[in-house]
Each structure stands twice: as structure tokens, then as C-alpha cells.
Amino acid sequence: MTGGSEGHQPFLVLDGITRHFGATRALDGADFGVAPGEVHALVGENGAGKSTLIKLLSGLYQPGAGRILIDGEPAVISGPPAAEALGFRFIHQELNLVPHFDAVGNAWIGRRHPRRGPFLDRPAMRAHVAAVAARIAPDLPLDRPAVRLTPGQRQMAEIVRALMTEARLVVMDEPTSSLSETEAERLHTVVRQLAASGTAVLFISHRLDEVMALADGYTVLRGGRTVGAGRIREIDRAGLVRLMSGGSASTGSAAKTDRPLSAGATVLAADIAFGPAGARARLDIAAGEIVGLYGLVGAGRSALLKALWGAVPAHGIMRLAGRPLAGGPAGRIAEGVIYVPEDRRREGFAGALSIADNLALAHLSDFRRAPRLPMPARRKIDAFARQVGARLRLVAASLDRSPLTLSGGNQQKLLFGRWLGRPVRLALIDEPTRGVDVGAKAEIHDEIRRLADAGAGVIAATSDIEELMALSDRVLVMNGGCIVADLAGALLTRDAVVAAAFGHASADLSQPQNQAAAVA
């Protein structure tokens, strides 16, 4: 067992842990240890066992074999209350905020509220939350319902809730996946502060540069087993990738193909006002072109994609292949427009349906028992699901299970797989690989390139600037709800993208020349 910060022994040890679900071995002899004051990275591809290990620590699952040791003594984490009593705090990748509670109300869920006589002491509640938020999210709107927060703000509210009380161990599962670079750096500072105070931090991230910069130690899982552990200074990024994949090192994203810009005729031309007051976008997308959409949290990327999808009101002109585009999502689908949302759980799939049924949602009319019968044929749905699952290498114990049982990367594959087999003219993709491992990221990038190679125009909004640079033929940068830069060729550099996102774009970048003619 390798673990522990410099000069400290692990206070928490998992030794030879197994956990099976039928024939699926989620954990098959996993070892892990973390010391007080250590930032320990847990890495591995989706399906490697990270989520199962977290659920063991939270008391949701019990190990089939192996030992959990706390302070050298065997321990049983019988359930979430036991984990809470041990000082274990969890910040999950998929957030669990009450939509109509504000940040203060969400932070106090499950805690003993301060009172003034028989009444809740709301000022004291708010003051406590504000003090915690000041360290990581001083701009977080504490009195706004969670449903009205951006994904990044909801992530910060979840982190504030986890840090309300003292903790021995804080588990962070992809905590920066929806954060801007500024918010991520702020979170990194908080992580270091926690470690300096003696709190152990288990940090799970697919952003390996983040892992290399932040972690003291690491554990790599593959196929449910621990295949590597040690001090982060003793390994490099390529070494981590080799351990995760079991093969040669890869960045997880193939080099950007050198397709010519504007490979085909204009597929989308839009000049619209949408979302918050003052938000306006003018853009054109060519067939066969991958256009990256970048901006800080709150810049309006997701709102723009939803407006183009027809899910939120927009005013102005939208033309698809020269024809006016009207109506809502159903009309968009009929015209060959597809949408992959950022929030998989809330907007992406129906948790009450099976994986197979979710894959078939966009094809139900094709799977009827007979042309005049509305009921779909189970046999056709299952055959389609098996075909898509094999193509995308979807890892699932059974296609009859809920998509909520899938890892983040496999949930994302499901959302892409739903549209396979349909003619696509325009693809709107919000955070294509959020919380996805290096292997699944490469596969999803390949699917996006296949869409473009088949003639679809693609708009991919991402907060991962490395992904943006690797995937995009052209990049649109948003700030304050508006497109402020259109970058391609020699102008498309990381520095130019970041400068534009922070509102420092030069005049020649902030007024794209190729947009005016497209909408005229």
C-alpha cells in the first residue's frame, strides 16, 4: 500500500476490496490509502471502479471482501450517517441540490438549524453559509433558487454545502468539470487550504494536468483493481495514461484534423437575441465544420445552444440550409438538428427508462410493430440498442438497467448513441466530454468528427480549452451573452481565446467579418 503525505501514515486504508454486481466486477482487489493533510488523486477510465469506491466510503455499498481500516482499526461504514459521523464529506459529479431551495437552504439540509426561540434564525444561517462561500465563491448568489443558477454556480453551491462542517476527508468527484478557469483556480486554493489544515482530500479528475499540479499522491484503478499508486512527483502525465489504459500513452484526444474551413455551404445562419437582457449572437456554421464555443461560466454558451435548439425563446433570424427555422425541439429534430445537453441527468435521459429505451427515444417511429400501430417492437429496440452499444463500446451490466447506473463517460456515449442512424445537418453539443476519461474522450471526439465528415455542421461548447483547441476548426468566444471573437487559422491560439473570454479581445477579433453576409 502506497499512500500518505510526507511523513504521515494513512489514516484511511482500503485493503483488497471487492464488490461484484452479478457477473460484473466493479472492484476486484482494490487498495487505497490517504493520510491527513494529503491531496490524493484517484484516477482511472470510466468503469474502472472509482464510483463504486466512493459509494463504499459513503456507506451506500458494502464490500464483498477486503478490509476498511480507519486509524489502524477495522471499520464498517454502515451507511451515509456513519460516513458523516466519521467526518467524510462528498461532492459528487452529478449534483444533488433541491431545485427551488437557494444556496443557503441547500447548505443546511440535514443539519441542525440555528434558531431564535421557536423560529429559524435565517440571518445566522445565511452568515454561516456566506463565510464558507467567501473562500471559494464570493460571487455566488446565495438567495437565488438552485434551478436558476448556472451549472458552475450549482457546483459551487454543492461544494459550499460539503464544507459547512469540519471534515477529516473530503471526496471531490470531478469538482471543476463545470467551472471556469478562474473558479477552478479558486477551488484549487481551497483544496490546498483544506490539506494545510490537516484534512485529507480525495480528488477525482479526468483533467490530468490538474491532477499533476494539485495532488500529492495518486492511485490508479483499472478494471476494478489498483494498478499503480505513489507520489505524484514520481510519475508524469504519460505514465498515468499508460497505467489507466494498460497500453501506450495517449493524450485522449487525437490531433485536430486539417479539414479546410467552411468545408461546405452554410448550414446555419442566425442573428438572434436570447436569454438575459442584452444577449445576442450572430453566427454562421458551414456543413462539415466543427465550431468550438468557448466562454467563462455565465457567458451564455448553454443559453445560446438552447436557443438554437428551440428550447428557450429567441427573437431574430435562424435559417437552416437557407430555410427559416421555427418551432421547438420536435421541429428541429425533423429538420435534422440534434442536441446533446450539458446536464445529463436533468436534460439528457429519462432515468425511469432503461438504457435501451433511452437509446431508442429518437427512433420510436421507426420501431413500430406495424406502420399503423403506435406501439414499438421490443425486438427492434433491443437490436438497435445492442448495435449502438457495440459501436460506441458502451460498458453496461445490462441494457435493461437504468442509465443512472452508468459511469459518466458511458452516460455521455448514450446521449450520442441516441442520434446514430438519423440524418444530421446540425449538431449542438454542450460539454461533449465533461467528466469523461481519456479513452472515452477520444471515442466521443471521433464521433463528432464522423458527424462533420458526413456533412453536418457542429457547434461544440466546452470549458476544456485543450479539447477546444484539439477539436475545433474555428472558435467562437462569448462574453456577457455575446460572441466577441471568431478565431480561425493563425488567429486561433490559446492566448487569443483566453483573452477574448476575459473581455480583452482586440478590435479585429471582436467583430467577425464573415457573419454579416451569412444572415443577410
Descriptive tags:
alpha/beta; 32% helix; six-stranded mixed beta sheet; Rossmann fold; 19 helices; disordered C terminus
Radius of gyration: 24 Å
Profile the largest sheet.
6 strands, mixed
Structural class estimated from helices and strands: alpha/beta
- How many helices in DSSP terms? 19
Family: Belongs to the ABC transporter superfamily.
InterPro entries: AAA+_ATPase (IPR003593), ABC_carbohydrate_import_ATPase (IPR050107), ABC_transporter-like_ATP-bd (IPR003439), ABC_transporter-like_CS (IPR017871), P-loop_NTPase (IPR027417)
Protein name: Rhamnose transport system ATP-binding protein
GO molecular function: ATP binding; ATP hydrolysis activity
Itemize the secondary structure elements and their pairings:
Layout: E1 12-21, E2 24-34, E3 39-43, H1 50-58, E4 65-70, E5 73-74, H2 80-85, E6 88-91, H3 103-107, E7 115-116, E8 119-120, H4 122-136, H5 151-162, E9 169-173, H6 181-196, E10 200-204, H7 208-214, E11 217-222, E12 225-231, H8 237-245, E13 266-274, E14 280-286, E15 290-294, H9 301-309, E16 314-320, E17 323-324, H10 329-334, E18 337-340, H11 344-348, H12 355-360, H13 378-392, H14 408-417, E19 426-430, H15 438-453, E20 457-461, H16 465-471, E21 474-479, E22 482-488, H17 494-501, H18 507-510, H19 516-519
Parallel strand pairs: 3-10, 3-11, 6-9, 9-10, 15-20, 15-21, 18-19, 19-20
Antiparallel strand pairs: 1-2, 1-4, 4-5, 7-8, 11-12, 13-14, 13-16, 16-17, 21-22
Helix pairs in contact: 4-5, 14-15
